[in-house]
Each structure stands twice: as C-alpha cells, then as structure tokens.
Amino acid sequence: SSVITATGGPQQSTLLPEVLLDMAGWQYEIGRYEQASRSYTDLVAMVTNASFVPEVDEDTAPQPILWRSKKLWKEHQRRLRSRTQLERLARFNQALCYEQGGNGEAALRAYERFRARFPQDERTAEANFHEAAIHVASGRNAEALARFVATADAGTAPAALRSESLYRAGLLLQAGWTLVAVAICSLLNLLLE
Predict the structure, then answer these.
(1) Span 8-29, mean pLDDT?
(2) Residue 105: which pLDDT band, with cuts at 50, 70 and 90?
(3) How many other CB atoms are there within 10 angstroms of residue 46's CB atom?
(4) Any residues with CB less than 8 A from the CB of 152 and at least 6 apart, and which?
(5) CA 151, 152, 157: angle at the middle one, nearest 5?
(6) Long-range contact list for 149-156, CB < 8 A, 24+ apart?
(7) Is the pLDDT of residue 5 over 90?
C-alpha cells in the first residue's frame, strides 16, 4: 500500500517527498516495478498538490517584516524548485517502471506526460527513445520512426543516443523498403504469370 493512502492523506512533512522518492527507487532496484510506479504516482500527486505545504514552526520568533518577507519568498521559491525537480524525477521514473514492468501502453502515456510537462528537460530525448523502442516492440514502426527522429534531432541528447536513434531509424526504413520491394516483386510475379 502507498504512503499517502495508508496514512489517510499526505502528511505535512518536508522530508516525506524525499523519503517517498527513495522508497520508490529501492522498489525499482529490486524489481518491484508495479509498486515503484505506484510510489512514483503518489509522489507526483503529492508534489503537484498545491495544498501540500509543510506547516510553519510555531516556536520560532517572527523576523522583522522586510527580512521575513524576503526569507519567506526565498523559502517559497526553494520549495517550488524542489517540488518541480521531484516531479521531474518521479514522472520519468514512473514511466521507466511501467516499461520495465511490461506495461508498454502505460509507459507510453507516462513518457508523453513527462515530455509534455517538461519539454526542455535533458531526459526528453531519452523519453523519445524509450517511446520509440516500445512502438517497435508493438509493431508501430511509423510512430517509432517519428520518435527516433525526434531523439536524433534533440539538441540535448547525448551523441551516443542520437547515433543509436539514427541507426535504429535506418533499420526501420530499411525494413520498410524491404517490405515494399517484396510486395512489388510479388505483384510483378503475379503479372508475369
């Protein structure tokens, strides 16, 4: 069961998202992909929920107004950055869990959500590549080709990933032309008989 549902809702703790991230990572490492994907789903829900803000400590003395405002603003910005980074990690890792667990369609949806939410992230190219591999395994070569090309075109993709994408796109094109050539030969044989 998940941390959120087991406790009746997210607890107001600054450490809970990091603990949930660690827990999901451990589940992934030992091959419990379904449990890990649920933990990552809980983490995404937690960090994207605007009401998840740890309570201010009541025992601290208030700072002067200007200092308190600046300090609160910086703390708010830090929390937003932290939540966004946790969401990035959780969404991408959630997709990996679905893929490793054999749920290709859920993995595709998760990778698409990741790319839509974080189009400038450095892992967007890797998400494209994983989507392409899932499409190849499902026999959807046109979709796979589009994702391989998107990976190769990504400026943020490492050179090795771009090269592998071009290679795999070439294999798909070659296989496609082979099928076209076989079809043409079959038609010619029918016409010549």
Answers:
(1) 76
(2) very high
(3) 21
(4) 162, 165, 166, 169
(5) 65
(6) 150/125, 151/125, 151/126, 154/124, 154/125, 154/128, 156/120, 156/121, 156/122, 156/124, 156/125
(7) no
